[in-house]
């Protein structure tokens, strides 16, 4: 009897194992059939999660950028306090006072910048929208004149017309999106204002209680992580801070210089859209290699609203300045924060842009620099073990 029971148990185990394999196979089959739907659902959930967390993410980025100026103010205030009152001030009071000074200074600068920059930018965009037919005519004439110098290439008037329609169509579509109105735009503005308010509040508390927040995170990590994993994670965060922090902050400072210098150069030659081009050139400059080309291209395209010679002169000036910036100014600001050859930087930008858009183009370079750092360390370790 017991021998039969043992045999039954054996076959029972085999049957259960077969059933489990069958269930797994059916599950995998159904998963493969509905993979696209599942992927879209996960994508929607992820996007909604990012949208909900966006104020926290933006607040973290802003507070990370502002922490160094805040520390500078704190040192300046503490030295002045000790020199005047002959005693050390309370660090919490120093943090609060300096943070309020920083916040009010930034808000005042932003308000002044908006008053000085936004009206001319809007006026430039309105001018572009009103003069698009004129641009099409000037562009057609310019391309027709250039076509005479390339007689070996068969270019017809119909092809030139299609090119001009395509270029002016891009401008027109961009402007329509910029000045679109209706309930959708009102909802977007309301959401933007709400997220902006939440970001400002969170940024204030992140900066004010930075040490307390990091202390709580350190305690949670101590409780939940293995000590060796915690040490490795700390080293990784320090590496990210060193590479990403230096690169991103340096790029922002260089973008401000490029935007200001581009605007001044175009104002000198009387370019009617100097402020608009300078603003876009500064913003786009955070994308290595690609950004400077966008600024020069805009100088030519928007120069068509007056004449092609002015556009070409503006582009030439921007290219000359960007060469000076890329070879002398930017290396001084960034230092050797990446240590990457230009060809690898360009490849990283292409891959990052294809997969993650503009953000990918900006962050692909420090990501590759981080990968290179760990590969170099691994190579040194292998050589030492050999």
Detail the topology: elements first, then pairings.
Blueprint: H1 2-33, H2 35-85, H3 91-130, H4 132-147, H5 157-178, H6 183-208, H7 210-224, H8 227-268, H9 274-284, H10 290-303, H11 308-334, H12 342-385
Strand content: under 5%
The computed structural class is: mainly alpha
Helical residue percent band = over 70%
Count of strand segments = 0
The H-and-E topology, N to C, reads as HHHHHHHHHHHH
Any idea what the shape is? extended
Q: What is the CA–CA distance across the termini?
A: 64 Å
List segments where confidence is low: pLDDT < 50 over at least 5 consecutive residues: 181-185
Mean pLDDT: 77
Query: What is the CA-atom radius of gyration, in angstroms?
Result: 29 Å
Q: What is the makeup of the main sheet?
A: none
In DSSP terms (H or I, runs of 4 or more residues), the helix count works out at 12
Describe the fold and architecture.
The chain has a domain at 54-122 and 184-224. The protein has helices at 2-33, 35-85, 91-130, 132-147, 157-178, 183-208, 210-224, 227-268, 274-284, 290-303, 308-334, 342-385. It is mainly alpha-helical and 386 residues long. The chain has twelve helices and no strands.
Q: TL;DR of this structure?
A:
The protein has 386 residues and is mostly helical.
Observed structural traits:
386 residues, mainly alpha, 12 helices, 0% strand
